[in-house]
Design brief:
By secondary structure, the chain is of the alpha/beta class. The chain has one domain: NAD(P)-binding Rossmann-like Domain (Rossmann fold, 3-Layer(aba) Sandwich). The chain has helices at residues 32-43, 55-65, 72-75, 91-97, 99-102, 130-137, 151-156, 170-180, 197-214, and strands at residues 23-27, 47-52, 68-71, 81-84, 107-109, 114-117, 120-123, 142-145, 163-167, 188-190. An 8-stranded mixed β-sheet has the order 3-2-1-4-5-8-9-10, with helices on both faces. The protein has a two-stranded antiparallel sheet with strand order 6-7. The model is unreliable at 1-7 (pLDDT under 50). The structure holds NADP nicotinamide-adenine-dinucleotide phosphate.
Amino acid sequence: MLAAASPRPLWLQPRNFKLPGMKVGIIGGTGKFGAALALRLREAGHEVVLGSRDASRAEEAAAELGVSGATNADCVRGVDLAVLAVKAEGAIETAAELAGPLASTPLLCVAAELRFGSGGVRPTLEARSLAERVADAVGAPVVAGLHSLAASNLAADLPDEDTLVCGDDADSKELVLGLAGQLVAGRAIDAGPLAGARTLEGLTAVIVNVNKRYRAHAGVRLTGLA
Ligand SMILES: NC(=O)c1ccc[n+]([C@@H]2O[C@H](COP(=O)([O-])OP(=O)(O)OC[C@H]3O[C@@H](n4cnc5c(N)ncnc54)[C@H](OP(=O)(O)O)[C@@H]3O)[C@@H](O)[C@H]2O)c1
């Protein structure tokens, strides 16, 4: 957990500001995004446990990254933060299965439901975000964020972009903002309550279309902030 209260928002801290080392479990950490996240978190001095539906798959992927691996259920036990980084189609079911082991551990949902089809990628037709529906399935406080960070950008270095985070539980959101600020060269920005995940998840579809159109790895930068 975050130790000392800071008079400044965490994303405005100087870049050498040190968060206390945290333990983070990455559910579905065998994927592209989970692996990139594990790498950056490990480099920032945090302890990472990669999770998978299959323990041996987790251990194999974890060994390559210099972290530890476990089943999804075991990777969330005793951590400060769990990250739900499974394929979006499996997010709600996975969260529901892990509600017991998660208990009240903050859960960061990075998933966005996308519909691939002719003419481009479209956001989900669901009115509520995946993160809000994940929150319905668990007792833990859910935070949503990091959607606009491409796994390839995150794997290469600290991406030169901002990252947006939203959530209803102030302490959990603050914790995620602190960690997220260590993942980008830009800023981790508080984007309000969890309902904002509808926009953040939808923005993913926009960015994927931009990337396809311009053969890029685009990210997000907000202007007008100090
Ligand atoms: N890729 C990106 O650039 C990016 C950027 C921002 C956010 N995200 C979000 O991050 C999440 C992971 O993205 P990714 O590209 O890493 O995905 P991925 O490689 O396709 O999948 C990640 C992991 O999810 C697990 N998984 C697959 N289907 C599942 C199911 N039905 N139920 C439970 N687990 C399942 C698999 O782990 P095991 O088979 O080992 O269990 C897999 O390694 C997605 O929700 C995505 O929206 C991705």
